[in-house]
Amino acid sequence: MTEYFGRADQQWMINFQVDDLAALIAQLEAAGITVETRAEWDSEVGKFACIHDPEGNPIELWQPNQ
Q1: 20-40: per-residue pLDDT in tens?
Q2: Under CATH, which number does the domain 14-64 receive?
Q3: Stronger pLDDT, 46 or 55, i.e. the higher one
Q4: Element (H, E) at 51
Q5: Which residue in 8, 22, 48, 63 could disulfide with 41, CB within 3.0 to 4.6 Å?
Q6: 8 or 41: whose pLDDT is higher?
């Protein structure tokens, strides 16, 4: 088991690649959607953020480094 998914029974996560994570985060927050970011999620492969669907399942957003 891993705590990466946020729940012990969670075994998968949807991940969407995006072109402009900062702009998407602004749009989501303007629509009232909570967006979680953490500096430790960002790495040599890109920047990451997480939102949750209505059932609490995580949806990861990823902007690859150019």
Answers
A1: 999 999 999 999 999 999 999
A2: 3.10.180.10
A3: 46
A4: strand 46-52
A5: 48
A6: 41
* H-type alpha helices, 1-66: 21-30
Query: In angstroms, what is the C-alpha Rg of the chain?
Result: 12
Measured CA distances, 43 to 26, 46, 47 (Å): 21, 5, 7
Structural tokens at position 66: 């150019």
What lies within 8 Å, CB to CB, of 45 at 6+ separation is 62, 64, 65
Asked if 26 and 37 touch (Cβ cutoff 8 Å), the reply is no
Q: What is the mean pLDDT of residues 40-54?
A: 94
Q: How many CA atoms lie within 13 A of 60 on its CB side?
A: 16
Cβ–Cβ < 8 Å for 28, 51: yes
- pTM value? 0.80
With tokens 């953490």, the residue in question is 38
